[in-house]
Amino acid sequence: MQAQQGDRISAVAALDEPTRRRLYDHVARQPGPVGRDEAASAMDLPRTTAAFHLDRLVDEGLLDVVYERRSGRTGPGAGRPAKLYRRSACEVTVSLPERRYDLAGQLLATALEESARSDEPPQAVLDQCAYRFGRNLAEAREAGREAAEDVLRILEDQGYEPRVEPGAVTLENCPFHALAQEHTDLVCGMNLKLLDGLLDGLGSTGLAAELDPSPERCCVRLQSQD
User: Fold this and answer.
1) How far is Cα 138 from Cα 4, in angstroms, rounded to an integer?
2) Contact 161/97 with Cβ under 8 angstroms?
3) Dihedral sign, Cα of residue 163, residue 169, residue 173, residue 175
4) How far is Cα 135 from Cα 223, in angstroms, rounded to an integer?
5) What are phi and psi of 121, to 5 degrees?
6) How far is CA 163 from the centre of its chain?
7) Distances (CA, A) of 146 to 95, 113, 138, 155, 191
8) For residues 212 and 220, what is the distance between their CA atoms, to the nearest angstrom?
């Protein structure tokens, strides 16, 4: 699951501290998990300082903790497992304004694979994949919430920066901006289907997605149907 933009910014900001960045780089370069004493010795730091920064990196999701007995002994008398650190599998990227090129790549790759299996045109399959993704976003929402309220929250989470206007919701940011500039019909069509799927999945939002291209914002506008 993708972390929220605020969490990703916090994780990257944590690496702005020089000691913490050195410790992260050291752990990332090792072939196996690293203990506090080993990290402190390698970085010429007090053990307590190394432990503090390592645990902060864990809190930010940049490192994982594992427990192992370094002696290789097992059973009674083998001692407690040591707390060790390794780089987490979580990928952290930050862009301002927010971009979702990872999502575009995921949808495009899935569409190519499904197109090759079905012999359907890639564009048609991409539209289906984008619509399905939008429906999945809607189905993952918390039960009991109002659809009209949820649509704004989901759009914000996906980086669209929704702004409510009389009779419409404009999307002030395009998460696929650079791709949309180079491959407008393909990417804007994908975007439209994704938002169609989201609105259909949410149900009674009173909104419909329409193409309304503008160089300053997303190519899709959500128009009130009331």
Assistant:
1) 17
2) yes
3) positive
4) 19
5) -60, 140
6) 22
7) 30, 36, 12, 14, 23
8) 5
- Which helix (H) or strand (E) segment holds residue 68: the answer is strand 63-68
Q: How far is CA 38 from CA 23, 33, 52, 62, 197, in A?
A: 11, 10, 14, 19, 51
Task: State the Cα–Cα distance between residues 130 and 138, nearest whole angstrom.
Answer: 13
Identify the helix (H) or strand (E) that includes residue 171. strand 168-171
Residues 186-222 have pLDDT tens digits of 999 999 999 999 999 998 889 999 999 887 889 999 9
Question: 124 phi and psi, to 5 degrees?
Answer: -65, -40
Rounded CA-CA distance 24/131 in Å is 39
- DSSP, collapsed to helix, strand or coil, labels residue 101 as helix
* pTM: predicted TM-score of the whole model, two decimal places: 0.73
> Counting every residue, how long is the chain?
226
Q: How far apart are alpha carbons 201 and 147 in whole angstroms?
A: 9
H-state helical runs in the chain: 5-14, 18-29, 36-43, 47-59, 101-118, 122-139, 147-157, 177-182, 184-202
Give the sign of the dihedral formed by CA 133, CA 136, CA 142, CA 148: positive
* 109 three-state secondary structure: helix
Cα–Cα distance measured from residue 95 to residue 108, given in angstroms and rounded to the nearest whole number: 21
**Between vectors from CA 193 to CA 145 and to CA 133, what angle results, nearest 5°?**
55
Q: Do the strands 63-68 and 82-87 form a parallel or antiparallel pair, or are they unpaired?
A: antiparallel
pLDDT of 24-53, one tens digit each?
999 999 999 999 999 999 999 999 999 999
